[in-house]
Amino acid sequence: MANSKSAYSFAGKKQKPDTHIIVVWVDNEAGVLARVVGLFSGRGYNIESLAVAEVDQQQNISRITIVTTGTPQVVDQIKLQLKKLVPVHKVADFKREDKNVIFKEMALFKFVANNEKLNKAFEACKNFNPVILDKTNKSNVIQITALRREIDSMSKNLKKFGLVSVSRTGAVAMTRGSEIFK
Amino acid sequence: MSKLYSGAEIVFKCLEDQNVSHIFGYPGGAVLPIYDELKNFNSIKHILVRHEQGAGHAAEGYARSTGKPGVLLVTSGPGATNAVTALTDAYMDSVPLVCITGQVPTHLIGTDAFQECDTTGITRPCTKHNWLVKDINDLAEIMHKAFEVATTGRPGPVLVDIPKDIQFQKSKYKNYKKNKKLNGKSHDNFSQKNIDELINLISKAKKPIFYTGGGVINSGTKASELLRELVYATGFPITSTLQGLGCFPADDNQFLGMLGMHGTYEANNAMYSCDLMINVGARFDDRITGKIDEFSPKSKKVHIDIDPSSINKNVKVDLAIVGDIKSVLTTTLKTFKKSKKNFSKSNKSQISNWWEQIQKWRSKKSLDYIGSEETIKPQYAIERLYELTKDKDAYITTEVGQHQMWAAQHYKFNKPNRWMTSGGLGTMGYGLPAAVGVQIAHPKKLVIDIAGEASVLMTMQEMSTAVQYNLPIKIFILNNEYMGMVRQWQELLHDKNYSESYTAALPDFVKMAEAYGCIGIRAKTPDELDDKIIEMLNTDRPVIFDCLVDKQENCFPMIPSGKPHNQMLLGPKDQKEKKITGKGRTLV
């Protein structure tokens, strides 16, 4: 069997994929995250990062922020399929390059090193709003907020200052200015 | 103080308020309180199936033939998992189902209790929505919401999982008032501008075609009437998907037959060459489009669908109209009649070349087959069955495979809701239980399951249900002793290596019928076929009809998938020696 004898037609022409940030407002009820995430895995969509928490206690609304990559057609499908879910109220979609939207991720870094290196580590973080959350004479824990790729490169570059552990959140997003997404 | 009802009572109060008259089910430990309450609700009749998958397909048959939601009631664990195939089938073919499952008591959930499974987890991807009822005070609201979600927008299955302790607990029940406002998930948001654009395209088209699907049937009988009106008013040709058969009369001259992998030569060529394609309630499925990049390359495409996620999913369209077919067609017709009086006459010359071309394709007679006097050709069997039942307003269900395609090609449907077949999921074993459901909904009508011997064995146990409730369903088996469609592909594409597709050790279907307490009839030659069919039709009891057909017959015409529509394989009459070679071989 030289060739694949697939029962299905060949895939059509591929479009170029893009990174999008999808924000979903949902009822905060049991299983809602599984519905959203299951839709992504079941239909073969990609999740790069995920952040979810309740944002309105009175109306029980949670806000899910998903970073995904996909062709324009796939991203359209993601939005339309999400909107079909019963507990979903609204869906927003931002391109990562969008200047009108703020994206942030938070990371916690733990360093184990001598004082000199710990100071250098803090110095290296200073563009990303570093906060020292814990300090002993041979270790500290620093919190930073930054973009995904900045945290990526930081966690690589800080190894030399004794970085031993990284914990990070998914991206959260918000539009600039007085506008809110309806 | 208002009266308190148990959870089990509330389930039935809700079903009553939703005008449910029949439920299909199978009892078990976790639904016993509900079954206990059954005796107190006379307006609801329970149909005991023999397997939960059968309950699901029967509810599907009931729903498709009536347009009302089908209801099934099964127990926890295996009861729920057995229903999964039917739920998925209903999800793929947009059939409204409400599945009520029992669950182990709340305090046992998560402990791997006896007959416990994560029902809502398992069914999440194959339902529109599902609920685990954790509080008796939510039960009534969830039940009514379930019916609303199942029947509004693009219909589909839903599931309500009710733990046993909730079935015993008590709560108030407020009488249900049907909410006139549609829920937020149904989308009727097209504008007059969309309609004007459509009419503009219609008036300019030189090679138009209507491509209609199951959405027309789901939108109700009125939608089929409106579609007919529009098709006649335009004079355009029309083709239909497997699920859409019946929304336009199959014996009308404007109807080109079914399209797609086993569609007619004229329908597929017209789809390929058209300059305007009006998709009404179909979803550009891969069995329809073939190779996407070469799908109808020169046409403007219009897509009318209630589900926004169907638009541009597989094929990019030029004009999308999101809405219920019935309301879209109503507006279209209203506008069309105002602005284009006598359109079909005035437009005749503009599309006359197109019709000429279509007639040329038609003259290929792509559904023809080589007849025989010794053996029954399966196509001949369907033709005779059609001729002998066409005045009886029959309801036809099918299993999945060659017989299904032959039925779609050779049985002519003139009314919606008469054709129940598993298209999206392709579930072998669908037809027999579906026929049970159809016969329950239409006790006086003729219901025939056109079956293959391999498929029908998958759910054969439901014959027992048919006998118990005196349902005179007719199981018309085209018996070629093979999984015919598998055999066909192996012949054409895998060098006749018939790997595991021969059904050895078949039961004697006539004796089997007798064992079930129904009637068995066997036809072996073309001469006796008519008499035997008439004997079957005159029997007012369930019948298993064992029609021994040509074992080698293949289903043509055929687009090897991965090929565009204009490269069809025609039947042996046309292509005696032309075998599939080269690229085509790899693609089906």
Helices, strands, pairings?
The complex is a heterodimer of chains A (182) and B (588).
Chain A (H helix, E strand, L loop, with lengths): L17 E10 L4 H11 L6 E8 L4 E10 L1 H13 L3 E8 L5 E12 L2 H10 L6 E5 L3 E8 L1 H10 L5 E6 L3 E4 L7
Antiparallel strand pairs in A: 1-3, 1-4, 2-3, 5-7, 5-8, 5-9, 6-7
Chain B lengths: L3 E3 H11 L4 E4 L6 H6 L7 E4 L3 H15 L3 E5 L3 H15 L4 E7 L15 H5 L5 E4 L6 H13 L5 E7 H5 L1 E3 L19 H13 L3 E5 L1 H5 L2 H14 L3 E3 L14 E4 L6 H9 L2 E5 L5 H4 L10 E6 L13 E4 L2 H15 L3 H4 L5 H11 L15 H12 L5 E4 L3 H9 L8 E2 L10 H11 L5 E6 H4 L6 H6 L5 E6 L4 H10 L15 H8 L2 E5 L2 H12 L5 E6 L34 H5 L1
Parallel strand pairs in B: 2-3, 2-4, 4-5, 5-7, 6-7, 9-10, 9-12, 10-11, 12-13, 13-14, 15-16, 15-17, 17-18, 18-20, 19-20
Antiparallel strand pairs in B: 1-8
Helix pairs in contact in B: 1-6, 3-4, 3-18, 8-13, 10-13, 11-15, 16-17, 16-23
Structural class of chain A: alpha+beta
Radius of gyration of chain A: 20 Å
Mean of residue pLDDT values of chain A: 91
How would you sum up the major sheet of chain A? 5 strands, antiparallel
Gap between N and C termini of chain A = 55 Å
